[in-house]
Amino acid sequence: MTFVTDMLATVSRRSRELIGWKPVELRPRKASDIVALARTLLSRRGEASGTALARDILDGYRQLDEAGRLTVLRDFAEGFGADRGKLDAAIGAYQADPSPAAAATLHAAAEPRRQELIRRLNLAPRGTAALVRMRDDLLAALPAHPDLKVLDDDLVHLFSSWFNRGFLVVRRIDWSTPANILEKIIRYEAVHEIRDWDALRRRLEPVDRRCYAFFHPRLDDEPLIFVEVALTADIPAAIGPLIAEGAAPLAADEARVAVFYSISNCQTGLTGISFGSLLIKQVVEELKRELPKLTTFVTLSPVPGFAKWLAKERRTETGFLLEEDRQLLATLDAPDWRADGARAQKVDKLLARCAARYFLTGKTTGNRPLDPVARFHLGNGARLERINSGADLSEAGLGQSHGVMVNYLYDLARIEENHEAYAERREVVAASSVRKLAEARG
């Protein structure tokens, strides 16, 4: 990929020379210049000159300050919509003759010019990575500037095609992986912090550890997702023993369980972009080929939305909680509530019941589970297997889920079936023990 990127850069440089174009670095670094270049890019037909212009636009955009970037984003959102004249003409032609050809013309006329602009920007060397960073900026600005939503919709539409699973490559990450990638594993770890290089080594080098990363060919050595795996004898119920320092490693051929204990999305600019389902199945198959004695593939996953949901349920008088439940849950308001072991045990039992209801009844307006991690694993064909109270006693774990974690089971024989149940009916595939827990009272 470095060869291809360098070749594109050479094409871009030679194209500037051929058309007499001065790079942005020699021009005033103003938002209006970038927008003007974008209009020029859309007006040109030559692909070589387009590559040069695209690079100048993206380089110039990156040189702007935050206010300048926002101005460019707003101009892209407001000034690069569909051509109204062409759209009106296409609507009239379709109404007069609703043929497939007229429908195709109408579809083309309705497409915002932003999408063609984004496609042409993507031709620049490292253009895809630059567009992903641009969406970083857009997502940060979107809450205060909802008018940017149309631009975000166009980026999501195109990214969803560019980053589908067919383009992704899975690679094993180990201690011999180049340092520039290992450094990114430390930086991007979003579930269980990796403090330093020694901590990373403990997650990669032991014989009972594995790490896999998904890459896209247009993002060079930038991982999209990475998956950390521990090989164990049994399904774990707590994260502490898995990431503790000094634990004796288990011989790989003695392991029967592969535990996906950390799955991190590395690119903020790809938030909300589905890389396709069944990604984890690919890792399962990689592990199964290497270690055929493995019989069980599970996660030990956080529950990031549970504490917030439970706080709302505690304020809702008509909810499922009994009065004695509310009194017991009041214990959570004390910072040291786990100091009373007997009471903490009762609270944990109640938290497991509440979490089961959270997973099975908590829904978004689109009838999907409230929990984002659940949506990911259910969409990948997993089954909600077990709820573990007191599994993550870190500050983050207690804050987001009162210490609750869950196991999702990846059964190779049922992954596709479970995926279809979720994709078609939004069914939360769960073990019978979890369903019984959700129905329990008192």
Structure description:
α16 packs across α20 (432-439). The chain has 442 residues and is an alpha+beta fold. It contains 20 helices and eight strands. The protein has three domains: 2-162, Butyryl-CoA Dehydrogenase, subunit A, domain 3, CATH 1.20.140; 166-299, Aminopeptidase, CATH 3.40.630.180; 302-439, Malonyl-CoA decarboxylase, catalytic domain (Aminopeptidase). The relative contact order is 0.08. It has helices at residues 2-19, 31-43, 47-63, 66-79, 84-96, 100-110, 113-121, 127-141, 149-162, 179-188, 197-204, 240-243, 279-290, 306-315, 323-329, 341-361, 372-379, 395-401, 415-425, 432-439, and strands at residues 169-172, 209-215, 223-232, 257-265, 296-299, 301-302, 383-388, 405-409. It is globular and about 70 Å long. The strands form two sheets. Strands 1-2-3-4-5 form a five-stranded mixed beta sheet, sandwiched between helices.
